[in-house]
Amino acid sequence: MDMDRIQIRRATIDDIDQIWRVEQLSFPTPWSRQAFFSELTNNQYAYYFVLEFDERIVGYVGMWLIFDEAHITNVAISPEVRGMKLGELLMRYLMATAKGLGANRMTLEVRISNHIAISLYKKLGFKEEGIRKNYYADTFEDAIIMWVNL
Q: Per the record, GO CC terms (predicted)?
């Protein structure tokens, strides 16, 4: 992969429209534009990063950092660039950033049917540590709770 075509940086409110576009393309029940605005302007624990490919936002990731734990709120890669290992790159960046900010552990929830994401998280060292029953409001699908030590 030509790394000159990729940049990861902290998200700003000017990125919300592009983040929301990726969100809508990625999830059956996307977060609202207002939710992202609130995360970027009002949540002191939130850290959001965007991945630009050829100077266009094609992915983003968010986490809450509370004391020494990082909780991934969401991660998405636009469908037209999936399979290029950009999600892995973004996750590795987030993990290193969280560790640099003092996190010792990181957690996330993932749909039990999202085998591609689960496989990536396991590759990155995450372990399944529980289930949240009926976690997703749109389908009442269960979520797997995963943790990794950083």
A: cytoplasm; ribosome
